[in-house]
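ARCHIVE CARD
Drawer: 12
Card no.: 0347
Subject: one protein chain, sequence and derived structure
Cross-reference: see card 0346
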Amino acid sequence: MLWPRLLLVAVLAGLGPVGCGFHAIHATSSGAVDDSPVGTELARVRVDPISNRVGQQVRNALVERLSPRGEPADPLYTLKIVLTESTADVGYRRDNYATLGNLSLSATIQLRREGLTLLNETASTVASFDYLGPRYASVVMERDARERAATQIADDIRGRVAAAIERYQSNPNDPRYRRRDMTIWPDDSTAAPIIP
């Protein structure tokens, strides 16, 4: 009776460190720096400045997620982001006093490499917050929702950028990277190629 149990324990102990060999393109093995091929490329993305306070929060969160060792000295990619923010009341009391709000954050994302547009998309996220009695408490709740939204959209943008870089690396001669359709950015008149 003891031998079969010992044999089972030995077999399970031998299989413990064996893995399937696959890993997510977003994951890091050590939790700090991603040394995978895509992680190395992400560390070469320069994030352009984003206007206003929430833009600074999104940019800081992206820099942490793309290049934990600091901003690249020789960037290969340029990431441009235009943010729009809105709030809406979604919960009311019987006296029409708002009790719940949604803060929506939307980002127009463009990733470029040497004149080629690798990514031209829009990402968005919503963070809810409570309106509390005192005005200061409501302002704090809204600020917390804004910080959560900035973190969520930075995570989303990092995933999209990683996927775009991996897609480009797997087939850099794809005709979509030679196409030069033009669109206008929402914050200025700078023309930017768009990919279908």
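Annotation on reverse: Residues 135-170 form the longest helix (36 residues). The mean pLDDT is 79.
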